[in-house]
Design a protein that fits this description.
single chain, alpha+beta, 2 domains, two-stranded antiparallel ribbon, about 45% helix
């Protein structure tokens, strides 16, 4: 479960508002739902748009050169479940079609890893079959092609050997074949397992200022304040 609940100050503000306006159970539940929908979830969308945590701290950038925004799809998966028996609501993640190899992974697991960060040990044996099927047609990247040329990779052309062009490597060699050749030419021993560290990119949460604004708006929305 993602820990994106209200902080103590926000909880105290909410409790004070509920006590001050003496809301009926139905009104209390409606207020909680609207705070979740138009307060916390809308804040999560803003956090992802700005690529920052609820307190305004920028997320750690990707290690790769990809520039596409991170977690773009995550706020779309946030759902609300009403729990009137405990006078509360639950925000959870559902959908996303995430996979780890051939296994499905719940959106909640993915969201937890992003919210809190994680460390995982990946074994080559666990992904080799997945890569061979899913990326069978994946071609070598330009980065790999440049690296192969730097390492002196050559192909036979008639009776001579010559360096292939970057374009020909990209068009004729698979991604995984290029990776294997790079390791061989670099003299690197292939790793059987490696550790992946995923930094925390907190997206579910709302700042104190935004919470107070949302509380005032939603009290007005149900006819109070």
């Amino acid at each position: 479960m993602i820990s994106g609940q209200l902080n103590q100050s926000q909880f105290d503000k909410l409790q004070a508002a509920l006590k001050e306006h003496d809301l009926t159970p139905q009104k209390r539940q409606k207020l909680l739902f609207r705070l979740a929908r138009y307060g916390v979830i809308d804040a999560a969308k803003r956090n992802v748009k700005k690529q920052q945590s609820p307190d305004g701290e920028p997320w750690d950038a990707r290690k790769s050169k990809r520039r596409k925004k991170m977690l773009n799809n995550m706020p779309k998966l946030l759902k609300i479940k009403e729990l009137p028996e405990s006078e509360s609501v639950r925000i959870y993640l559902s959908g996303g079609n995430y996979r780890n190899g051939k296994k499905t992974v719940s959106a909640g697991v993915v969201g937890y890893s992003q919210q809190h960060g994680s460390r995982a040990t990946v074994k080559r044996s666990n992904i080799s079959n997945f890569h061979s099927v899913r990326n069978k047609e994946l071609k070598a990247s330009k980065k790999q092609a440049k690296k192969l040329r730097e390492l002196g990779y050559k192909v036979k052309a008639g009776k001579k050997w010559k360096k292939p062009s970057i374009k020909s490597i990209e068009g004729e060699m698979s991604f995984w074949q290029a990776g294997l050749l790079i390791r061989m030419l670099s003299g690197e021993e292939p790793k059987n397992e490696w550790i992946i560290d995923l930094p925390s990119r907190e997206f579910l949460g709302i700042s104190q200022e935004d919470f107070e604004k949302a509380l005032a708006r939603q009290l007005q929305g149900i006819g109070f304040g």
